[in-house]
Amino acid sequence: TMSHELRTPLNAIIGYSEMLQEECEDGGQPAAIPDLARIQTAAKHLLEMINDVLDVSKLEAGKMTLHLETFAILKLVDELVGTIQPMMDANENRMTVEAGEPGPMHADLTKVRQALLNLLSNAAKFTRSGTVTLAVARVDQRVVFRVTDTGIGMTQEQMGKVFQTFSQ
């Protein structure tokens, strides 16, 4: 029941954003298309997260499955910047990207996107009139993502909890 109640309105948002994009393309309103695409991307991401979270038994059993695929890192970075930019603007932050040409990555796109969105949104939230940087580099066979900001930082106590079980 909960699955249906969460997915149905979200699928409507995805569907309506697709329809509105098509109407804007056909009706000569290209200015609205990027914002509608961001809505659609964010809604699809939320749907993917809901699908993962709803299966609590897998989470509790430590049997979360990865859906590996190959994707373009720069496309992911562009989507992330588009999604996070309103938060950056709200706190008068400047978003910079240092990516070069990292090429493709083979991983669980949803999990990578989720982790980076969490880091970027925290950086945006705790930085005022500063800079948030997303750096991407390929080191040997690995892709390294680094989010840095000029915000308030973390205390030693907070740093000690970074890799502990989640708590608010």
Q: Your description of this structure?
A:
This protein has 168 residues and is of the alpha+beta class. 55% of the residues lie in helices and 19% in strands. The chain has six helices and five strands; from the N terminus they run αααβαββαββα. The chain has a three-stranded mixed sheet, with helices on one face. A hairpin with a 2-residue loop joins strand 4 (131-139) and strand 5. Helix 1 packs antiparallel against helix 2 (33-54) and helix 4 (73-90) packs parallel to helix 5 (109-125). The longest helix has 25 residues, at 2-26. The radius of gyration is 18 Å and the shape is globular. The mean pLDDT is 88.
Short description:
The chain is of the alpha+beta class and 168 residues long. Helices cover 55% and strands 19% of the residues.
Give the percentage of residues in beta strands: 15-25%
Distance between the termini: 27 Å
| Spans where pLDDT lies below 50 across 5 or more residues | none
Radius of gyration: 18 Å
Helix/strand-derived class? alpha+beta
**Adjacency order of strands in the biggest sheet:** 2-4-5
Overall form: globular
Q: What is the count of β-strands?
A: 5
What is the arithmetic mean of pLDDT? 88
Order of helices and strands: HHHEHEEHEEH
Helix content: 55-70%
* Major beta sheet summary: 3 strands, mixed
Quickly count the helices.
6
Task: Name a few traits of the molecule.
single chain; 168 residues; alpha+beta; three-stranded mixed β-sheet; two-stranded antiparallel ribbon; 5 strands
SSE topology:
Elements: H1 2-26, H2 33-54, H3 56-61, E1 68-72, H4 73-90, E2 94-98, E3 104-108, H5 109-125, E4 131-139, E5 142-149, H6 156-160
Parallel strand pairs: 2-4
Antiparallel strand pairs: 1-3, 4-5
Helix pairs in contact: 1-2, 4-5
